[in-house]
């Protein structure tokens, strides 16, 4: 019998007051031999059932006590909480083991300081409600929970990630205010980032790199021209902007003529700038700092993507494809494998395609 089956059998005997000495002695012998398979909740039920029937000897009780202490010291924090929550549902239980489990759970929770320790729990806010209902909520767990929430709000808002919800953060702030922790930096940072990111739905968009290369480090920097007003250039399609830009230039009719050749060059340069494309300067922008030059990106390879074949409507489509082979060429599952297309060596074997015909595979193998 398994440990759970032995526990249920002892509980049934205690419920109906069927304390047969022979049966109970045999069950106690099996419990003592298989004590390593008993979890803490099974130990509580077994000790409670034997105590109700008044059939628990001292040596067996010592074995149960030692294994209960071993279980409490070795199991994780979440299993301790599961055992504490399962004790009220047991028909027969042993109060010393319940107090031992609850004391160990509270002792471990009181030592929580960072988010990784709170991450041991399946639902940290369920533990918060449990401690609040039992009257064991303290400031140390609230500080650790704020650290867990601070890390959680920076995670993606998907089902596979554990992150706090809006209602949970509101309850956390209320509990922290009751304990005088409303000025905690972690709590304020959590709430501010949660609001700024729209609950994790507004993803931070990063600028794409100018060139991509594997095993290359990219440095992200704020836009230096974010708050700088740049001069607006005229449209190439509109000709009405040209007189407005050139009306104050020297050398135009109606203005004093100083140097006609120099003025003509200036007018031609401005006109070419408006009508043509603006070339990117080879040097860095004067608005950037000395250490933030845009020409310091080092790329060892200038290879681009493989060029695609340009579409030519006059080129027949069938020339870009291999000609279809006859059905007898492919053969069935029981035929010998045919030669596959190889590299073309002119008139010598191997040919570009499968050698077929009178000078095909048989002729090639003879040679």
In angstroms, what is the radius of gyration?
41 Å
Q: What does the main sheet amount to? A: none
Q: What is the number of helices?
A: 15
- In terms of DSSP E residues, the strand content is under 5%
Q: What do the pLDDT scores average to?
A: 76
Percent range for helical residues? 40-55%
**Care to count the β-strands?**
0
User: Which spans of ≥5 residues are poorly predicted at pLDDT below 50?
Assistant: 235-249, 254-259, 273-282, 294-302
Shape category: elongated
From the helix content, strand content and strand pairing, which structural class follows? mainly alpha
* Distance, first to last CA: 78 Å
List the helices and strands in order. Answer: HHHHHHHHHHHHHHH
Biased composition (Basic residues): 299-308
Biased composition (Basic and acidic residues): 309-322
Region (Disordered): 230-333
SSE layout and pairings?
Elements (H helix, E strand, L loop, with lengths): L2 H13 L5 H13 L6 H14 L4 H17 L2 H10 L8 H15 L5 H4 L5 H11 L4 H14 L13 H13 L6 H12 L44 H6 L13 H16 L51 H4 L30 H6 L1
How would you sum up this structure in a few lines?
With 367 residues, the chain is mostly helical. Helix content is 46%, strand content 0%. Residues 309-322 have a biased composition (Basic and acidic residues).
Which short descriptors sum up this protein?
single chain; 367 residues; mainly alpha; 15 helices; 46% helix
């Amino acid at each position: 019998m398994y440990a759970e089956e032995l526990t249920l059998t002892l509980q049934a005997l205690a419920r109906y007051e069927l304390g047969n000495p022979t049966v109970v002695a045999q069950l106690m012998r099996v419990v003592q031999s298989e004590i390593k398979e008993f979890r803490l909740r099974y130990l509580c039920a077994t000790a409670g059932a034997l105590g109700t029937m008044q059939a628990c000897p001292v040596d067996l009780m010592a074995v149960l006590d030692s294994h209960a202490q071993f279980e409490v010291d070795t199991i994780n924090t979440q299993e301790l909480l599961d055992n504490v929550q399962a004790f009220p549902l047991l028909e027969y239980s042993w109060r010393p083991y319940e107090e031992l489990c609850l004391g160990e759970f509270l002792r471990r929770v009181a030592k929580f300081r960072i988010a990784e320790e709170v991450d041991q729990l399946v639902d940290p806010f369920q533990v918060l409600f449990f401690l609040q209902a039992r009257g064991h909520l303290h400031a140390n767990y609230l500080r650790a929970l704020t650290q867990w929430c601070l890390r959680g709000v920076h995670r993606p808002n998907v089902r596979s990630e554990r992150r706090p919800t809006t209602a949970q953060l509101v309850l956390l702030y209320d509990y922290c205010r009751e304990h005088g922790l409303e000025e905690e930096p972690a709590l304020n940072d959590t709430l501010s980032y949660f609001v700024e990111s729209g609950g994790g739905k507004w993803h931070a968009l990063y600028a794409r790199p100018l060139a991509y290369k594997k095993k290359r480090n990219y440095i992200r920097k704020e836009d230096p021209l974010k708050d700088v007003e740049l001069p607006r250039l005229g449209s190439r399609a509109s000709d009405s902007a040209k007189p407005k830009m050139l009306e104050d230039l020297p050398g135009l009719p109606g203005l004093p003529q100083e140097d006609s050749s120099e003025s003509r060059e200036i007018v031609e340069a401005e006109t070419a700038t408006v009508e043509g494309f603006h070339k990117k300067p080879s040097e860095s922008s004067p608005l950037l700092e000395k250490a933030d030059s845009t020409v310091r990106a080092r790329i060892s390879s200038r290879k681009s993507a493989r060029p695609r074949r340009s579409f030519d409507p006059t080129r027949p489509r069938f020339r870009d494809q291999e000609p279809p082979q006859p059905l007898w060429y492919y053969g069935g599952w029981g035929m010998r494998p045919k030669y596959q297309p190889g590299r073309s060596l002119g008139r010598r074997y191997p040919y570009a395609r499968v050698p077929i015909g009178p000078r095909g595979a048989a002729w090639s193998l003879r040679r």
